[in-house]
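request received
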Amino acid sequence: MTSPSSPSAAPPSVPQARVDELQQDAGRSGGVRQLLSGQVAGPLAALILAVVVFGLTTDTFFKADNFALILQQSVVVGTVAIGQTLIILTAGIDLANGAIMVMGAVVVGKFALDGNPLVALILGAVVCIALGLINGTLVSVFSLPPFIITLGMLSVVTAAARLYTGSQSYPIDAPLLTVLNEGPQIGGTTITYGVMLWIVMTLVITYVLSQTSWGVKVYAVGDNPVSARLAGVKTRRVLLFVYAIAGLIYAFGTWQALGRTPTADPSSYATLNLDSITAVVIGGTSLFGGRGGVIGTFIGALIVSVLANGLTQAGIDSLYQQVATGLLIVIAVGVDHVVRRRQVR
Amino acid sequence: MTTELSSDTTLLQARGLTKHYGHVVAMDNCDFDLRPGEILAVIGDNGAGKSTLIKSLTGAVVPDAGELSLAGERVHFRNPLDARLAGIETVYQELAVAAALDITQNLYLGREIRQAGPMGSVLRRLDKKAMRAGAAQQMADLGIRIQSIRQKVETLSGGQRQAVAVARAAAWATNLVIMDEPTAALGVRETNQVLDLILRVRDHGLPVVLISHNMPNVFQVADRIHIHRLGRRIALVESAHTSMEEVVAVMTGAKPPTSMHTVGADEIAVPALPQDKADNNG
Ligand SMILES: Nc1ncnc2c1ncn2[C@@H]1O[C@H](COP(=O)(O)OP(=O)(O)O)[C@@H](O)[C@H]1O
Ligand SMILES: [Mg+2]
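response:
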């Protein structure tokens, strides 16, 4: 069956005008309107507001080089936060993502010491995906709470990375491993391949979430797992895939991080888990699952960087940056709460 | 096509269904008959075994014994997917829709249409236009009033939400729709809307099995009533030829089912009224 229709020839009991109206509505495409509606509009307005305020109050903010810098500063959190978004959309959370990314980095660092950097990079990716799969298995097959599972993983993987390296750092010098920090001159400034990769990944995941049936299932599982299961969605399989794909995304985060700081340091990025959650939440994705998307997360990561950068340019103590970020989190969660209260009657 | 069967044939038939949970006999040699094009109400006290019977018709429970046939052919449902593939769709009591998804996404959840050509086969792109058109047609066919097919289900009232669940079931069912207390969570006005919808689904040619506790609702829509007691069907009556008092009396054991005008009594063996629960179950 390709389209729903009752097995009968009985004429519709609704005036034809009404049917036409619905059909017309059905024919219009969603496009930009849909993209800008809901979750993305608020974060985008906040980003624009921040940019305008810092542009007006400092002379150094509104420069192409500064914008390029902000993008580069956002790239690691932004990339990892894509995976975090997928997990939060399923009403889960990943506290171990930073640890997984760092584990990937030290695996790459160790194998690249006297081996092929491509092989090292692939091995790092395999480790990230495997750790994602372990999370996914515990969450989906054994129905354990993601918060607890990933909290445990955070401990185990952080310790494992230090044991594996003897708490040492490895220098990264292979061009392949740092290539994401390079890039062509565009408009008088350097746009790195890392930034381009981040944008492309955001667009690819947006496509997957909004244009494929798998994407619909991710939202359905996060919104109401019971109804999803009753509708025939294999909810466990969807969850398992989400955590595995998040692992793959963290592997790209590893690559981005080695480009930004060419050292594989087992004690780096200790707050990346919370930073990625911050970007997701400020980007308008609901912590309760089922609502949001990665374009919002992209904007959320940018907002955090813009605040850090702008307040520094304005000569304001960096502690105020944390205050501002905290306020934004509270506002974002408050807005989400109001939206859900209004809509879930 | 179900509508081509004559009215005295049976679309879905069960004989001798039995299900034990430890020492509890949830179904005890239970029969079931559904005719094409009818609304069959299933009533019975709490714990009578209605849900167990319904679950064995939808594949959610596999009976220990007994047989099931659909349009004259033996069927074995090992899981809900088997029943769904056989054209049986179920509407559950809890409003089983995803609130953050829109009407179209709910109607097509798990059955999305992909675009033709490489866009669909390689890029897995959904054909949203086709799905919205199909959803609009389905909602219009069933006379369900909504503003837009893109409305998120959370913006709908409880009755409209259940209407979306019914529309989904009716859209995909090719043989019958089963509804387990679809109005239990609704107010009076919304209940009536859903009852109207059930009549329209029937009028479109799909038979409906309706489990309900609400006698006025049952008499409002049902063509026949299956009375369930102590794990089995004790009577099958036409609602036009009986009264609410009589049905309730038989359902609760105050009156023997032999006193009723049962339908097709020659083909349905009416079991003797159990005298004592403990004896009967032991
Ligand atoms: N999964 C189960 N495990 C144990 N006992 C069950 C189970 N399902 C139903 N029963 C028992 O079977 C009997 C019939 O239950 P049920 O089919 O739910 O009745 P109804 O839907 O008519 O209220 C009850 O005594 C109930 O406790
Ligand atoms: Mg029940």
